[in-house]
Amino acid sequence: MTATELTIAGVTLTAGARHLVRDVSLTARPGETIGLVGPNGSGKSSLLRTVYRVLRPAAGQVRVDGGDAWSLPVRRLARTVAAVVQDPAADFDLAVREVVAMGRTPHKRLLAGDTPEDAEIIDSALLAVDAVHLADHPFDRLSGGERQRVLIARALAQRPTLLVLDEPTNHLDIRHQLSVLDALRRLPATVLLALHDLNLAAYYCDRLYVLHDGEITASGPPAEVLTPRLLAEVYGVAADVTVHPRTGAPQVTFFPGEPRI
Amino acid sequence: MTQATTGAPAERTTARRRRTTAPGTGRTRLAVTLLVLTALLAVSATAGLAIGSVRVPPAQVWGIVTHALGADWREPDWSRARETIVVDVRAPRVLLGAVTGAGLAVIGTALQALVRNPLAEPYLLGVSSGASLGAVSVIVFGVTLFGPLSLPAAAFAGALGALLLVYATARTGGRITSSRLVLSGVAIAAVLTALLDLLLLTTDRGNEARAVLAWTLGGLGGTDWGTVWLPATALLLGAGALMAQARNLNLLLAGEEAATTMGLDVARFRARLFVLLSLVTGVLVAAAGPIGFVGLMMPHIVRLFVGGDHRRVLPTAALGGAVFLVWADIAARTVAAPTEIPVGVLTALCGGPFFLWLMRRDARRGTEGGVA
């Protein structure tokens, strides 16, 4: 498994007269973990949707290894790019293993059965998210956090070289937030993820892009991006940023009151 | 997180865990299920050929059938009349019953994936009513544009129209909720049925109308070999096409966005499914009338045995539907003999309560399965 280079070049997205995303450019070099942060409604999910081909940009281009993601057949793109999206599950008695097996679909021909190799890929995907013990459980009976881990396993089973995740740590308890992000970090693939938790973003991401009202307001290594001034501007909150004594990553601490900048 | 769940759901989880097993054992289980159902279908078909106003012993049924197929397994010891009853009267009827049951079960399965809702079924969603209206219009107005194919062609057009209408009205913000789906289905079925009644009551062709009326209740009476080949072909092609797309049907369960990320062109796939399902529904309704609830019950019953993967559900549901409808038809022609009950009345008698149970089960699950 290799890694893919992602280039978002001048992408604009509109919904009616409203701009969801305006002239956004972003690069993820092969193997990098890139975090997308910003307040609710800043356009994170919309931007991610242009990468996994649900929202077509009104202007600009999404390039995957140099090729336009929107001119590839959907199936071809799905062999390179996998995503974890926020979508409610339907109630159809699927076992966890069957849900994860869906991830193999873009690699399979019509009527081809699951091979031992597929089974191995599915097993290792379940292992990566600490869900082996859930394999035979009905998916629709899992807790929110367990479901989220299974959906990540499904994306891993796709064997992507670029993985796009929209709030993958939602619904997860702190132990599983850390273990899931650890697993993503270990992947050789390029990872682009939207995150709410700035401290997790600071620790796990190589670089951050900050979205505010559909535009990129800052980008770079976490230590350069996460400053009290930026947090005041973008989130409108007061915060201290220190260096975490153990990890060396920037550590954001919020406190009540108006930001004084 | 699992520890947080209380006693009752936990028990349920262990109960259900037994049903969904590892792939190796699952394969054996699927094979066994298919084998049992095939044997059951053979028994059912034999019963369908044997039971009626003239009872034919099963051994003789097999003798007649093999004789008709050109292999003389035993010395003919039956009258010509019996041979006619088994081969020309009962056989096409049993075959049409099996084909229709299998077809409806397969359509129900695919329709449930298409709308991502376990309450979907061609009859409940008004798709069968649309097909009936199309077919009846052809009879009442005497349209013969496509020759003998006029009836199924009109039924197809009616089915497609109704399906698109229900889909468009039930869908809001890219999602279809159960209540909206069922309500739009009921409303559209009511309007289409009213139009159908209007047509039947205002037409001059009284005799034809009465013949049609019996047929709109769903029935397999009066089937001959001439009416069986088209539904049988439609079933084979339709079920084959759906089997080939079984993985993609699974993807639909994951939701539109997720399905796209796994390589499915959802809009195109959905459009093709609309046409395919309407086509098979139209042909089946043109031949057997609108028979309800088979498409609702079969997928659910077989999911209890083989899980939710469409590669398993489709063939199992097809066999189950065939067995079910062959028996329903046997009941239809024997319980009130010599009067024949439309088989659609009997399937509704079983299916209605099933639907209510399903609705209540889903409501219970909705509260239990709350996201942590």
TrEMBL record, chain A:
Pfam families: ABC_tran
Keywords: ATP-binding, Nucleotide-binding, Transport
Domain ABC transporter per the UniProt entry, residue ranges: 6-238
SUPFAM superfamilies for the chain: P-loop containing nucleoside triphosphate hydrolases (SSF52540)
Molecular functions (GO terms): ATP binding; ATP hydrolysis activity
Cross-referenced InterPro entries: AAA+_ATPase, ABC_transporter-like_ATP-bd, ABC_transporter-like_CS, P-loop_NTPase
Membrane-traversing stretches: none
Protein name: ABC transporter ATP-binding protein
Organism of origin: Streptomyces fumanus
UniProtKB/TrEMBL annotation, chain B:
GO molecular function, a single term: transmembrane transporter activity
UniProt-listed Gene3D superfamilies: ABC transporter involved in vitamin B12 uptake, BtuC
Cross-referenced InterPro entries: ABC_BtuC-like, ABC_transptr_permease_BtuC
Gene Ontology CC entries for this record: plasma membrane
Biased composition (Low complexity): 1-12
Protein's UniProt name: ABC transporter permease
Family under the similarity heading: Belongs to the binding-protein-dependent transport system permease family. FecCD subfamily.
Membrane topology: Multi-pass membrane protein
Chain intervals for the UniProt region annotation (Disordered): 1-23
Coiled-coil stretches: none
